[in-house]
Amino acid sequence: YNLNNALIGAYPDYSIDYASALVSRGSLASVLHALAESTVANKVDFTWDDNSDQVNANPTDLAMIVVLNPVKKEAAFVTNGAARTEGSQTLTVPVNYSGDVVVYYIAFISLDGTVANSKYLGEITVV
């Protein structure tokens, strides 16, 4: 998927269109109204609306969160985060991310391992 949809440019000058990339792809219901912000050093706070009453969503689905640091070519992530019904999750990122612009994604995974398509949430500067 990412090779066909998120890789842009021509050899040898490839780059990634982060808004088109997926970190997970599946049939589980996606996140609803997700946002992220960094207001405390080495923390990124994610929030979302509980949509566990939608078809193919469960109250027990767990958040999968990825913060990608393109400058450092690193990622911080959690694959078994807060339940869909909790509506928030804080991810601790490395202290050396402070001042870096990062891109971030969120998705859900069910208890049986079914995943949702990830959602690109944009870019932020880590405090």
Describe this structure in words.
By secondary structure, the chain is mostly beta strands. Helix content is 3%, strand content 43%. It has 1 helix and 9 strands. The chain has one helix at residues 2-5; strands at 7-10, 13-16, 32-37, 43-49, 62-69, 74-78, 88-92, 101-109, 119-125. Strand 1 (7-10) and strand 2 form a beta hairpin. The N and C termini lie far apart (32 Å).
Number of helices: 1
Q: Which oligomerization state do the chains in this entry correspond to?
A: single chain
Largest sheet: 4 strands, antiparallel
DSSP strand count: 9
- Give the termini separation: 32 Å
Order of helices and strands: HEEEEEEEEE
Rounded to an integer in angstroms, the radius of gyration calculated over CA atoms is: 15 Å
Estimate the global geometry from the Cα principal axes: globular
Question: Could you give a quick summary of the protein structure above?
Answer:
With 127 residues, the chain is mainly beta.
Secondary structure: elements and pairs:
Layout: H1 2-5, E1 7-10, E2 13-16, E3 32-37, E4 43-49, E5 62-69, E6 74-78, E7 88-92, E8 101-109, E9 119-125
Antiparallel strand pairs: 1-2, 3-4, 4-7, 5-6, 5-8, 8-9
